[in-house]
Design goal:
Distance between the termini of chain B: 84 Å
Number of strands of chain B: 15
Shape of chain B: elongated
Structural class of chain B: alpha+beta
Largest sheet of chain B: 5 strands, antiparallel
Distance between the termini of chain A: 88 Å
Number of helices of chain B: 17
Shape of chain A: elongated
Helix content of chain B: 25-40%
Number of strands of chain A: 3
Strand order of the largest sheet of chain A: 1-2
Number of helices of chain A: 10
Strand content of chain B: 15-25%
Oligomer: heterodimer
């Protein structure tokens, strides 16, 4: 029902519909509104010429500006790299022993290391660097270190890896497998002694003797371990592969030993330095003892 | 002005032809027949027109009390806008010395003695609510006073109209120049006028950016070409919008773009002050000569059209309150002048409530002005507005300048140490809202045997509380390690931060200590 008419009060045409006596005026739009509409059309033409717009079979038309979202990303990435260049340059020049003295640079190194850790390290050590007792990946948050927990030792481990065959400087050691060496009651006595080192069981003379004869050479008479050869401490609360009697006995009979890639051949020295700073910052990092005596101490950063 | 039948009709101010239909700028049909009068039967042939050319408003100069008030308002508002960024305010060596500064880069908002952080944005929200309610209050009390005097669109339009007057002359000269064909003289005048527009627009846009950075520095950098690109882009955009909206769009902004007139239409009632033509007194209209011949028949309005000529939005107030009327009251000045000239009492067009108009028409006394201003609605608005203001002031007065948040590391939730003790890690954020560095003590409360150290405090120095220096006006992030002896169960505890100065401000953050066996 269209009943257009001129509204008396305003002199304006109505749209011709009526709802319970209510009608709508068809007030003309201002002309400039139309111009803005035309301007947007003109702009769309300009846009199509300048930017990628028209979908074709393979890909969209390119646009004369040559802009692409990938290109923009590449630009932003190189800009970010450029922005980081100063920090990386300073990091490459500072010996890692001196890094804690520059707290601002240290903070930047930790932040950069956190990012690199997520890419390279979380696969084994976990996103929280808590490792895995089942699989024997060490927890990096605590204060137990197999090969040393100061910045330089961490960096060395990162650069040269652990038990990398064919690499001279890699950290390596071997625990012999005591398969079939001990009778069951001997094994019980040995496990008792190992647990007694951290106060978890009563030791007897048999177990103590077996430990002294077979284990103390590497793990130390008191079970203090040795960082020289990566022999774990046995007298603390932390167990790399579990602290149950079964887990200890299994490790004696069929020892598992961890491996770590030598990152020196994959990552640049600055990234490794940042990774070392990050791991050190997780809460268990140790201070240097020798730095104060020899400030010029250097570390081998080449793989 | 092009008339409907194609003839060019120039309305000379003050001596308009009687019977000439006066239409608003909004709804005047340009083609399609004469105005439809109420007594005529509905038409068969309808004008079809989708778009309408906007009519150029050439308002005539007028002097009077409202014009003078408008001058004062323009002076005050423009002075506030241009001077504010240059006011200095000493906040010590660690904070900017600009009285009003919106520091987007550092996320701080300074207003004289008040500094707002991003987490305190509710103050801004409260101010915006107050501004909204303030507009309600003003509208219910004095009508569209904001539109008429204080709105930037009004102030700048007024400014640009004075530029028109300066360059092209008053109303008639401008109408003639508009109608004249393009020639060197017109081109020169237009060029000069538009460059004045552009200069004003540039100064307008240029002043805006001074609120967002140190004004003297930015001013120097801007002209040395060393300001950040965003400064130039902002100035360019604001110059363009001022040039377009103030120079050309003008009343079109009020009528078509601004939502506020629509909202006000719903807010005005018969007790609101509006600019009103008292038709009971003015009608029927007739020239002075006609009225002298037949004084009984004609009202006070002599149909001189001066009220239309001075209107900055080009409406005819005699058609009643309408969306185009910004209540600038220049028509009151115009009508008062005419009434004085012909010896009739002032106030044929006047600020009045529609209620009072009816009262006056019946010959009763209008209500006193205080009764118009003080009525339940305005009082209620004022009380709400005032209590929000008081609440904001109270919140501002009691707010602490020291705050602490603690978020525990969840991966891993706890850490067994080699001596059997258990360690948890937390990220603490100490907020120092004073403009000076402060020492703050962080203490662990409710966790027996707990020791704490951090990423900057050595483990050998672990203790139940630690002191950290927080830079002026900054948040210090501390990675805190808390260790408890073997066998301590998982439990809730709190970090407490205390500022080590005479204020001794303190804040606590609840935290959970996780341990083996924690569910």
């Amino acid at each position: 029902m269209v009943n257009k008419r001129i509204d008396e009060a305003t002199g304006t045409e109505t749209v011709g519909h009526e709802w319970d006596g209510i009608e709508e005026l068809d007030t003309p739009m201002p002309r400039w509104w139309l111009w803005i509409f035309y301007a947007t059309i003109a702009w769309s033409v300009v846009y199509v010429v300048l930017y990628p717009a028209w979908p074709m079979v393979e890909k969209a038309t390119g646009g004369v500006l040559g802009w692409s979202s990938r290109g923009q990303l590449a630009e932003e990435m190189s800009a970010a790299e450029l922005a980081q260049a100063g920090v990386r340059e300073r990091l490459s020049r500072i010996p890692i022993e001196r890094l804690p003295d520059d707290s601002a640079l240290m903070a930047q190194a930790v932040a950069g290391g956190a990012a690199a850790f997520k890419v390279n390290c979380v696969q084994c050590h976990g996103s929280g660097a808590a490792g895995s007792q089942t699989l024997g990946y060490p927890n990096l948050n605590d204060d137990a270190w197999l090969w040393g927990g100061d910045l330089r030792a961490i960096e060395y481990t990162l650069v040269h890896g652990i038990r990398q065959a064919g690499h001279e400087q890699t950290r390596t050691s071997l625990m012999p497998a005591f398969t079939g060496v001990f009778a069951p009651e001997q094994m019980d006595a040995l496990v008792d002694h190992v647990l007694s080192l951290s106060g978890k069981a009563e030791s007897g003379p048999v177990g103590a003797q077996i430990f002294a004869d077979n284990c103390a050479l590497c793990h130390g008479p008191q079970g203090g371990g040795s960082r020289e050869i990566g022999a774990p401490r046995l007298n603390d609360a932390i167990w790399l592969r579990g602290g149950s009697r079964e887990a200890i006995a299994r490790q004696v009979v069929d020892p598992k030993m961890g491996m770590m890639p030598r990152w020196g051949e994959r990552l640049d020295p600055v990234t490794i330095k940042m990774l070392a700073a990050y791991v050190h910052s997780l809460g268990g990092g140790e201070d240097f003892l020798e730095v104060a005596e020899n400030p010029a101490v250097q570390v081998d950063e080449t793989p | 002005m092009k008339h409907r039948d194609g003839k060019n009709v120039l309305k000379e101010d003050g001596v308009a032809k009687t019977g000439d239909p006066v239409s608003s700028a909004v709804a005047e049909p340009e083609a399609g027949g004469e105005r439809h009068e109420p007594h005529e039967p509905p038409r068969e042939h309808l004008p079809s027109k989708l778009f309408e050319k906007s009519k150029q408003v050439h308002n005539k100069r007028i002097d009077g009390r409202f014009r003078r008030f408008k001058w004062a308002m323009m002076l005050v508002t423009l002075a506030i806008y241009y001077v504010t960024p240059w006011i200095r305010w000493d906040r010590g060596p660690y904070a900017p010395d600009q009285a009003v500064l919106i520091d987007l880069a550092n996320r701080r908002f300074y207003m004289f003695g008040i500094e707002i952080w991003p987490h305190e944005f509710y103050f801004i929200a409260g101010l915006l609510i107050m501004a909204g309610l303030g507009l309600f209050l003003v509208t219910s009390a004095v009508g569209r006073a904001w539109c008429g005097y204080a709105c930037p669109q009004t102030v700048w339009t007024d400014l640009f109209q004075h530029v028109d007057r300066l360059v092209d002359g008053d109303r008639n000269a401008r109408i003639r120049l508009d109608a004249a064909p393009w020639g060197p003289k017109k081109a020169a005048k237009r060029g000069f006028k538009w460059s004045l527009y552009l200069a004003i627009s540039f100064v307008t846009g240029g002043a805006w950016i001074l609120y967002f950075a140190d004004a003297p520095t930015l001013f120097g950098n801007f002209f040395a070409g060393e300001a950040p690109p965003v400064a130039y882009i902002t100035v360019a955009i604001l110059t363009f919008t001022t040039f377009a909206l103030g120079g050309f769009m003008r009343e079109q902004v009020c009528i078509y773009m601004c939502p506020w007139p629509r909202i006000q239409t719903a807010m005005l009632d018969e007790k609101s002050l509006v600019v009103t033509y008292k038709d009971w007194r003015g009608e029927p209209r007739g020239s002075v000569k006609k009225a002298q011949k037949d004084p009984e028949h004609f009202g006070d309005c002599i149909d001189c059209n001066l009220c239309v000529a001075v209107c900055p939005t080009g409406i005819d107030i005699r058609e009643g309150p309408q969306i185009g009327c910004i209540t600038c009251a220049l028509c009151i000045d115009a009508c008062d002048k005419v009434m004085a000239d012909i010896g009739r009492p002032r106030g044929l067009i006047d600020y009045a409530t529609l209620d009072d108009c009816e009262r006056e028409a019946r010959g009763e006394e209008p209500r006193p002005i205080w009764k118009t201003l003080l009525r339940p609605r305005t009082i209620a608005y004022f009380l709400i507005w005032g209590s929000i203001g008081l609440a904001l002031l109270f919140a501002l007065g009691v707010r602490s300048h020291t705050e602490l948040t603690a978020s525990p590391d969840r991966n891993p939730p706890f850490m067994l140490m080699s001596d059997g003790s258990v360690r948890n890690s937390y990220t603490l954020r100490l907020r120092n809202m004073e403009s000076r560095p402060r020492d703050m003590e962080i203490a662990v409360e409710g966790l027996p045997g707990a020791l704490m150290w951090s990423d900057t405090i050595r483990r050998d120095d672990a203790a139940a509380s630690q002191t950290v220096t927080v830079a002026a006006d900054q948040i210090e992030t501390v990675r805190a390690y808390v260790v408890v002896p073997e066998g301590t169960p998982a439990q809730d505890f709190a970090f407490r931060v205390t500022s080590l100065d005479e204020q001794r401000e303190t804040d606590t953050a609840e935290a959970r200590f996780s341990a083996p066996g924690d569910e």
